[in-house]
Amino acid sequence: MRLWRLLLQSHLGNAFWIELLCVSLPAPSNVSISSFNMEHTLSFLPGLPTPPDTHFTVQTLHFRKNTWRPVAACLELTAGQTCNLTRAFKDPLNQYWARIRAFTPTQTSNWTVSERFRPLFDTVLGPPDVSASGCGNCLLLQIRFPSTTGLQHFKRFYRRVVLYVRRSRDDAQFSLSLPYKEENIISYLETGVEYCVTVSVMSHISPNRISSKPCCAFTSPPRARSSLHLVLSLLGVFCALGFLLVGLVVHGGQLSFKLLRTPRRRTLSYILLQCRHRGSAPIVSHEVSEGSADCQQAASATTELL
Ligand SMILES: *[C@@H]1O[C@H](CO)[C@@H](O)[C@H](O)[C@H]1NC(C)=O
Ligand SMILES: *[C@@H]1O[C@H](CO)[C@@H](O)[C@H](O)[C@H]1NC(C)=O
Ligand SMILES: *[C@@H]1O[C@H](CO)[C@@H](O)[C@H](O)[C@H]1NC(C)=O
């Protein structure tokens, strides 16, 4: 620790003598390096008060090289910008520092130095992509990490995978811990049933586990059940149609019978009335001819019908 502090101070001192600028700007604050999946980013806040035309410049130091080097893409940052240090910190097993200072054409600030950064240990790994496919009474599981170049270094540090397997139907679940492999088989499962698997990867580097999102798949197409369902539902539809048809036929028959019956009854009652009121001389209608005998016949026919 003491060694690199001394180094930093000697470099700071040199910079001031050579550049002969007035060190009167406030130094940037909150300098930090964040890293996700081996992509490293430096962020900072301008010191207060910083004039609006201020720019910021970044340099990095390798533990083994002991010289500060400018980062080509971060020579003239403005407030609010970040610096991509992925290329500058490309050796995953090295240790690095970054520093930043503010400058205008006539003034500069002191450097603000970051904490020590170790790419392999300080990066945060995102969850792996998991895909699953059925293989009868088993599931074939593929685990993939993003193919960022830096991430390739991690493979040798993966130790185990823990698989959490949940049956969708009833949430019954169990877990399996296996040596790390990109392809895994989960066997002894039910066929034609959906399972959801969450994968958790443990590494030698970090105590934190990296968990995937649940990935769901059927062990085999749920064919037997679905065809049974189809047959049953078709049967149901046919039954319903049959009942509907029978109902229509019965109802239709009743209707036509009523239609046939109604007009005849009316004519006959009319004739009956005529017979009663006028005795032996009823008015002639189409169906019944003159005479009381006909009237009586009509009357008896009416009672039969009614
Ligand atoms: C820059 O650093 C020197 C020594 O560490 C300090 O005395 C000086 O006040 C600093 N300047 C500013 C503007 O912070
Ligand atoms: C900057 O750092 C200071 C002290 O370390 C902290 O209190 C403050 O919340 C930080 N500001 C931001 C915006 O992160
Ligand atoms: C940072 O640089 C790396 C390497 O050049 C690149 O792959 C990555 O996309 C960059 N990240 C951002 C946020 O620009």
Task: Write up this protein.
- It comes from Zoarces viviparus.
- Residues 123-219 form the Interferon/interleukin receptor domain.
- Residues 23-111 form the Fibronectin type-III domain.
- The chain is of the alpha+beta class.
- The protein has three domains: 2-119, Sandwich (Immunoglobulin-like); 129-218, Immunoglobulin-like, CATH 2.60.40.10; 226-305.
- Helices cover 30% and strands 31% of the residues.
- The chain has four helices and 17 strands.
- The chain has helices at 2-19, 119-122, 223-278, 292-305, and strands at 22-25, 29-36, 39-45, 55-62, 68-70, 83-84, 96-103, 107-109, 112-113, 129-134, 139-144, 158-167, 173-179, 183-186, 194-203, 210-211, 215-218.
- Strands 12, 13, 15, 16 and 17 form a five-stranded antiparallel β-sheet that branches. A four-stranded antiparallel β-sheet has the order 5-4-7-9, with no helix packed on it.
- A hairpin with a 5-residue loop joins β12 and β13.
- α3 (223-278) runs antiparallel to α4.
- It is elongated.
- The N and C termini lie far apart (120 Å).
- The model is unreliable at 1-9, 13-18 and 264-306 (pLDDT under 50).
- One 2-acetamido-2-deoxy-beta-D-glucopyranose binds at residues 23-24, 26-27, 109-110.
What's the quick description here?
This protein is of the alpha+beta class and 306 residues long. The chain folds into three domains: 2-119, Immunoglobulin-like (Sandwich), CATH 2.60.40; 129-218, Immunoglobulins (Immunoglobulin-like, Sandwich), CATH 2.60.40.10; 226-305. It has helices spanning 2-19, 119-122, 223-278, 292-305; strands at 22-25, 29-36, 39-45, 55-62, 68-70, 83-84, 96-103, 107-109, 112-113, 129-134, 139-144, 158-167, 173-179, 183-186, 194-203, 210-211, 215-218.
